[in-house]
Structure formats: structure tokens, C-alpha cells
Fold this protein.
Amino acid sequence: MTDKERQQLLQQLLEKQKTDKLKPSDRYDIPQQDMPEQDPAVRRGNVNEVATGYTETHARLEAMRCLQCKKAPCVNGCPVQIRIRDFVTAIAEGNYKEALDIIKENSLLPAVCGRVCPQEVQCQQTCTVGKKFKDPTKGVSIGRLERYVADLNKNSDSVPTVAAETGKKIAIIGSGPGGIVTAADVRRAGHDVTIFEAFHKPGGVMVYGIPEFRLPKAIVQEEIDTLTKMGVKIVYNFIVGRTRTLEQLLTEDGFDAAYIGVGAGLPRFMGIEGESLIGVYSANEYLTRANLMKAYDFGRGADTPIALSKKVAVIGGGNVAMDSARTALRLGAEKVYLVYRRTEKEMPARIEEVHHAKEEGIEFHILQSPKRIIGDENSRVVAIECLKYELGEPDDSGRRRPIPIEGSEFRIDLDTCIMAIGNGANPLIRQTTPELEFNKWGNIVVDENCKTSMEGVYAGGDIVLGAATVILAMGQGRIAAAAINEYLAKK
Amino acid sequence: MADIEAPLVAQARKPGQFVIISINNEYGERIPLTIAGADPEKGTIRLIWQRLGKTTAELADLQEGDEITNVAGPLGLPTHLEKFGTVVCVGGGIGNAPLLPIAKALKEEGNNIISILGAKNKELLILEEEFAQISDELIITTDDGSYGRKALVTEPLKELCQRNAKPDQVFAIGPAIMMKFCCEVTKQFDIPTQVSLNTIMVDGTGMCGGCRIEFDNKPKFVCVDGPEFDGHKVNFDLMMKRLNAYQDQEKKALEQYKEHQCKIEQIEP
Ligand SMILES: Cc1cc2nc3c(=O)[nH]c(=O)nc-3n(C[C@H](O)[C@H](O)[C@H](O)COP(=O)(O)OP(=O)(O)OC[C@H]3O[C@@H](n4cnc5c(N)ncnc54)[C@H](O)[C@@H]3O)c2cc1C
Ligand SMILES: Cc1cc2nc3c(=O)[nH]c(=O)nc-3n(C[C@H](O)[C@H](O)[C@H](O)COP(=O)(O)OP(=O)(O)OC[C@H]3O[C@@H](n4cnc5c(N)ncnc54)[C@H](O)[C@@H]3O)c2cc1C
Ligand code: SF4
Ligand code: FES
């Protein structure tokens, strides 16, 4: 569809609406609006955002596809119950500010979530339009619309109002999405809030993990700027458990309550031969070097090096794997393989990322997994030996279990191998906070209010849920903040 | 060497721990340096480093009063201290710096301290004075014989192991190759040996796994499981190779930095 056709269609529909309401059939006839994107061949060579965003015409047309269902099943698909139908309707009517206000009732990071939420398994999975076309990706493009209204508001100076100072002090540990949202909500109630962050930059995984081409760092920075304008203090290079313990913060430093949002942050390896060879990375290390430390500018200012790879294999099938593979391309790799032991259908990555990765030329090796990693005499990786797999019966996660095929070994030559097979819970807080209750996976145990076993201590995000999502971390942050505000009001 | 203001770190640190610093917030590399000493009253920590590549050179070019943008710590597990009896502390080159606070603490625990300090030559020997104060016996070796005994540290170490009352514990800190050979010596005599490893790091909190080594054939993260380990179980050969992972790129970065510095000097003589 050309821009002109799009505008004409919108005009026609607006005319029609004046006389009578659009019928569902009219709405089904509106073609789904794809997001304008950088050309795959071009974007492989830069770190700029891949999807460039809707225009107003795109947004209104897409919003008009919404049937405005009475029961709005999309809302139940959303982990924080954004009033999706209402904000989409507002966009269809051209009321963008209203749309954003509706979203902000439940979500504080729309510009982030619009970009990184796995909508096809959340709101879009339950969308009636998607059901009609028997494909959740053909439902109303809720994430793109969310991003559109959030981006319109970019660079606005509006800062949430803060209640009168209460004199109560709250420590927020970790500046990921959970920490950011909790900080905002408890600061609004007038408390004195300090965020403690181990790294030298704020944002958690949104900054060190998710790459620039998918989530521009400027967006996260803007959220942080809003926090500082509200009067939230941020202390960097502060590792709770090492610089001070949680106990010290609460008993010696006068904090009345704390939120723990330290994320997952412990890379898993496969436990196979050769994993310590040079050129074998955890995705965390690879992405941190590339994103946070800006290794893509090594020799042009940045001091942190990263492998100069020609052939790369990434092991895994989630967002982390896609991000690693696409980062490797942008760092100049000629061939990038994605090795996953199930099939594309079971991949936990967002559909859009899978699609983008393929467009950019990542080669998918499905139903394969490395058995050992092979190095040369200098201990540099030169190949992986893989086994082929087939799918058996469904396992606990409901996905069909991959079973290795005996004798199917084969070799993939490469110079870099990135392990993107998930993250466990970092044990630092556990080791230094004996009073806190953890489960057997090392995750903090909380109740429905995100309260931990320690008085005044709340927790949320990946350290509670295991590696999860931005929106779930944010949702827990809001629950924890409400509980903290209530707790301090009584105290 | 420099004393750096970092009050919280100065208060919390224990012997054996380190900090991660970086000089430039956008582009700077994060490098680990051992806390060689601290003054909790003044709120300062002492760092001692060797000019190796770009970041350590940049650090050396800072003037008194300049700010180091990021200092994070203290990181790593503190040294396990107890009264072992006779402890041999072997330091090689810049390794004397991280060794000193450990030796001091061991002395305070009531151990009999024998120190062996090795250096390439007399000029490169550091902290002799400080070690003399806390050692019951002090042995100096240099590679070229310009000071002390002309030998590698492993020679006197072996002699000590052969004594009738053999040492109860050895701490060896220095270049990987030195620690490797020290461990080979002490293994023959079955003397427990702690080493402090200096792998390449990024975050220092267990998040990236870049600092991993093979220990007893299993992976361990130096920044959180160490930096000190039972040296007899460390795969030094692999560790040494991993230390050179970015050699070519580091060389380039240092050359660029030097060129840049020269140009500045030409402009402002
Ligand atoms: C590469 C990658 C891609 C992803 N893609 C997506 C996606 O597309 N969509 C999606 O929804 N989710 C995605 N996720 C998951 C999502 O990013 C996480 O679920 C989410 O960020 C978790 O938020 P959190 O609040 O728990 O904290 P995190 O974002 O994990 O941040 C925790 C922060 O705490 C700090 N910290 C840790 N320990 C300490 C300590 N002891 N003291 C002080 N500070 C500490 C850390 O430095 C960090 O800044 C992705 C994750 C990765 C790694
Ligand atoms: C726990 C620990 C404590 C240490 N304590 C001291 C100390 O007290 N004094 C001291 O002089 N040195 C110490 N080191 C080593 C010091 O970190 C490196 O010399 C420094 O990072 C070199 O940086 P560069 O940019 O100057 O050199 P580069 O040119 O970047 O590298 C030179 C060599 O240093 C090593 N190196 C490079 N980058 C890193 C990195 N990010 N982390 C660790 N090693 C790296 C590599 O082996 C490399 O080949 C310690 C290392 C560790 C892990
Ligand atoms: S389910 Fe889909 S069509 Fe129905 S209200 Fe929600 S977004 Fe609109
Ligand atoms: S430095 Fe990243 S895990 Fe040790």
C-alpha cells in the first residue's frame, strides 16, 4: 500500500463514519498496517532502530481495525490490564493524548513495552480480529499503536506530581524496569527514594542486554531523566551485598523499606566440553560488551574489545539469542547461524524478532544442538560438533521434548560461539542476606503483594519470576510500590 | 600507585577484594584492580597498578585531584584467614600489591610469615619496605640479579618446602605463569596453595561469565567464586590463553592512545 492509497482509504473511512458506524466487515477489510522498517540489507550495517514507527495515517487505520468488542478480551491478555480497547478507540478517533493517558493508568513505560512486549502471546493472542484470521499476528497491532502514542509524547517535559515529603526513606536495588517503576510510584507518594545500581549506567537489561536497534537507549534514558526530575536519587557502582548489605541499609542507613529488583543475571552454560575456549561467550557478556560498553566503536573511541568474528553460531531460540545473532551481524560477521534444538514453532522469541533475524540473513539451524566445542592449539574455538534432534512427547513446559538422534554428529566451522540458553538467579543477595527466603532455584519468595519474608522488603521482576519480561517486571514493581506505600502509611 | 576517595569501599573492603574502575563513562573499559590497602577514616583506598595497556596508561596519566568516573566494589570473596602456622607469601611483579593486605592480615592472625618477592630487576621491585615490616623472613629474587638473589621465586620456594618443618600454607600472587610454577612446586610437597587470579572481567558481579576459569574441570567465575582459589585445581594453561584473547586489539588501542598523547604534547609543549 502506498502512502497515497493509505491516505485515501483513511479519508473514505472517515467520510463513511460520519453517516453511519463502520461495520465489522468494513473493519476486517482494512489491511493490517505494517510498520515501516529499515531495509534489511542496510540495517545489517548499522545499529539504528530497525522499525521506524507508524505515521499518523498508519496509526488511525490500524486502530480502525479494532472492533471495539464489548468484552474486550485483549485486556485480559495484558499482564497489567491496560484498557486496550479504550486506548485503541481513542486513537481511531484521533485523540492521541487521551490514548496515552489511558495506557499510563496501568503502564509507566509504554515506549519500551510497545517495542519489546511479546504481544502475540499476550493481548494480541486474545484479540477477536486475530481469531477471525486464525493468526494472532493478524490481530490489531496493539504494540505498534502503543509505541505510536508513546513516541508522540517524546521530549515532553511533563513530570508527575509528587506528594508532600513524608520523610520516609526507600531503597530501590537495581535500575531495571521493575526498579524504575517502583521508584516512580513510591516517589509520587512523597517518599525519599534512592536507587542503588551495580553498573555505571541505569536501565538494567534494557540497556546492557536489549540492543540499540531494537530499543534505543535514549528512550530508557528519558525515563530515568523523569525520575531524577521527580527527585529520585540514583547511586551507581553500588553493589548491594558488597558495598553495603541490605541489612546495613535498613538498620544503619535509615531506610524504612526496600524493593529488590536485581534481575536474573547469572548466565547458564551447557556444561559441555570446550565451553571455556576463547571465542565462546555467554550472551550476557557478548551483549554487554557490545551494548553497554559500545564495543562496536572499538578503535573509534571505545576501549572495550570484542571478538572480530567472521562465522558465528548462537545457541538458543529466545529473544536473547536473536539479539546476539543480530548484534554479531552488525559487528561485521559474514555468517551467523542460530542453532536451536527444537523447531521454529517452539522458539520463545517474539515473532517479529524471528522474522527480522531471517530477513537480515541469519541462518536457522533447527533441531540441532552442540555436543562439544572444538578448539585449536591456542585454545581458540574453531568449530562445534552438533547432534541432530527430533521432537518427542510434550514436556512440563508443554513444548515437545527434543531427543538427540544417535550417530547424527556433524561439524559447523566457526570462530565465535555464543551461549544464549537462559539466565539463572544471581546468588549475591542470597549469600549476603541470610534472613531472606529463596526457593530452590534461587528466586526470592514473595506473597501476592510482592512482599518478601523480611519486614519492609519487597521484590519483583526476574529475581522473583525467573527470566521473564519487561512488562511482568513492571507489573510487579507497581504492586510492590502500592504495598510499600500502604506499609509506610501505617508505620 | 594512587589513593582514591571511595569511603564506602574503604569501609567495607576486606583483604583479597578488588574494585572495578573505569575512567570514561561512555566509552571507558571496566578494569579490575586489587585494593592494596585502605584508610576507612580518610575514606580512601590504595590502588597499585602496572602500565600494561591503554586503560592502565590513562590511569597513570591522571593528575592528583582528577576524578576516576567509576569505582565499584569491593568485589570478590575476601581471603580466608586463619592461623595456619608458617605461611609462605610469594609475590611476583605487581602481584606484591594484592599480596600485601593478605600478608598483613595473616600476620595479625598470628602466622609466621616468610615472604618471597620476585621482580624482573631492582627498579621493578615494589613494596619491599612494607613486606619487611611484617615478615619473619624476607627473600628477594630478581631475574637479572640486579638485587637480591638471581633466581625465579620458585627456587627459594622449593628450598622452603624441603625444610624439615615444611610450610603449612602458601599464598602465591603474580603473573599466571609464576603462579602455575609455584603450584607445581608445592603440589610435589602437598602444601595447600592459594592463588589470586587476574582474568579479564567486565561486570565483576557474576553476570557475564567472561572471567570464568576451569577449576577441577568445572567452570568457576573468578569475580564471585574467587579471586582466590586452590591453585592445585586451576587450569592455568587455559587461563593464560584466555588472558590473551584480545591481544591484537589491545595493542592497537594502546598505540592509538600513545599517538594521541604525542599529538597533544606537540600542540601544547
Ligand atoms: C538480551 C535480552 C533480550 C530481552 N528481550 C526482551 C523482550 O524483547 N521483551 C521482554 O519483555 N523482555 C525481554 N527480556 C527480558 C527482560 O529484559 C527482563 O525480564 C527485565 O529486564 C527484568 O527486569 P528487572 O526489573 O527484573 O531487572 P533487570 O532489567 O534485570 O535489571 C536489574 C538491575 O539490577 C542491577 N543489579 C543486580 N544486582 C545488583 C546488586 N546487588 N546491587 C545493585 N544493583 C544490582 C543490575 O545491574 C541491573 O541493572 C530480554 C532479556 C535479555 C537479556
Ligand atoms: C581480581 C583482579 C585484580 C587485579 N589487580 C590488579 C592490581 O592490583 N594491579 C594491576 O596492575 N593489575 C591488576 N589486575 C590486572 C588488571 O586488571 C589489568 O592489567 C588491566 O585490566 C589491563 O588493562 P589495560 O587497558 O591497561 O591493558 P590492555 O591492553 O587492555 O590489556 C593488557 C592485558 O591485561 C588483561 N586485561 C585486559 N582487560 C582486562 C579486564 N577488563 N579485566 C582484567 N584483565 C584485563 C589482559 O590479559 C590483557 O592482555 C587485576 C585483575 C583482576 C582480575
Ligand atoms: S480484542 Fe482486538 S478487536 Fe476486540 S477490543 Fe481488543 S483490540 Fe479491539
Ligand atoms: S566479570 Fe562478569 S561474571 Fe565475572
